[in-house]
Amino acid sequence: MHGRSAVSQSALAALPRKQSVTTLASALALNSAQPLVFMRFQPAWTYINGVREFVSFFCETTFGRQEVADRAQVIIQETLENAVKYSDTSARSELELEIRAEDGKIEFSVTSLPDPAHVESLKAELTGLNAQEPEQAYMSAFLRASNEPEASARLGLARIRYEGGVELSLQEQAAGRIRLTAIGTL
Amino acid sequence: MSRVTSIPVPALQSVVLELTPPNLVRLSGTITSKEPDPELTAFLRALQRAVLEDAVSELRVDVSGLTFVNSAAIRVFVDMATWVQREARSAYKLRFLTNRRVTWQKTSFMALSSLARGVVVVDHVE
Fold first, then answer.
1. In order of start, what are the domains of chain B with their CATH numbers?
2. Which residues contact A26 (CB under 8 A, 6 or more apart)?
3. How far apart, in Å, do the first and last CA atoms of chain B sit?
């Protein structure tokens, strides 16, 4: 499923082209008070596979569709990888994963405490990504990977958006924490 | 004698490699390591060089059993295609055998075949 949700598309259409990713986040967020899933854990690579497999199982069981589980796997793997790679290494650094579903939409959010230098590059990456349609951004990311063989892949965010069928947004929170949100249709 | 037959196949943690000379390699399992496994990348590069030296017209890469990969692993396939285009001067084709029911395979190899037109061919085995 590669299409964006009707809600996401209309929310995006209502925003100026260069809208900040922070405003985009509030425009797209679901309002349900209680997440279906809430997890808090240390930002360690070794947890990612287990969390991804649990979320895949949870989505398949809860929503009854393998396709939702497949999309969730990509979203979880790549958002957690991103959060773990750039997390502050202090003891107060924790990740929070929340999954919400409401009115045919699903939202995944990961809150982390990143190295401050990463926040600006993530905002720039998201702004560039959101300026293109998901498929176009995905192709651009492949082209960049091909042209920069020594650099890191940087396919993850484009992959989340296109393979996951979601829109991405970023909120900066208190004490240097950030919340990356992926929202799409069920 | 085919150079492909002399390539040692590494035993990796989450992915199984099977090499069938003269030109078929099968990967199955998952790849989610932080960086691509150096043994995997070295094996694939050695295989690509051997296929070139053997003057085989295509390398068949069966990924249909590779159920999930992260973006670092997708990078490995991008690099394979780029190598054929730039280093091997498109001397052979990379034919990826995929499972159309596996989401990452459908999207990634669609993109790769578009990026490396004439070098990457995608077939569905399921």
1. 4-124 (3.30.750.24)
2. A171
3. 33
Tokens encoding A131: 């300026």
Confidence of residue B126 (pLDDT cuts 50, 70, 90): confident
**A155, A137 in Cβ contact below 8 A?**
no
Average pLDDT over residues A121-126: 92
What is the pairing mode between strands B93-98 and B120-124?
parallel
- Condensed to tens digits (0 to 9), the pLDDT of residues A147-168 reads 887 777 689 999 999 999 999 9
For residues A139 and A119, the answer to whether their CB atoms sit within 8 Å is no
Q: Do B82 and A2 touch (CB under 8 A)?
A: no
Query: Using one digit for the tens of pLDDT, what is the confidence trace for A7-38?
Result: 334 443 443 443 444 444 445 567 666 899 99
Tell me which chain A residue has its CA closest to the CA of residue B114.
Answer: A139
Give dist(CA B108, CA B104) in Å, integer: 6
Contact A149 B34 (CB under 8 A): no
Residue B44 confidence (pLDDT) = 96
> Which residues in chain B touch residue A73, judged by CB atoms under 8 angstroms apart?
68
Q: Please name each of the domains of chain A with its CATH number.
A: 6-31+38-185 (3.30.565.10)
Could you tell me if A110 and A96 are in contact, meaning their C-beta atoms sit under 8 angstroms apart? Answer: yes
Tokens 């390591």 sit on residue: B33
Q: Which residues of B touch A48 (CB under 8 A)?
A: 32
- DSSP reduced 3-state for B50: helix
Q: Do residues B54 and B2 touch, judged by C-beta distance below 8 A?
A: yes
Contacts of A68 in chain B (CB under 8 A): none
What's the alpha-carbon Rg for chain A, to the nearest Å?
15
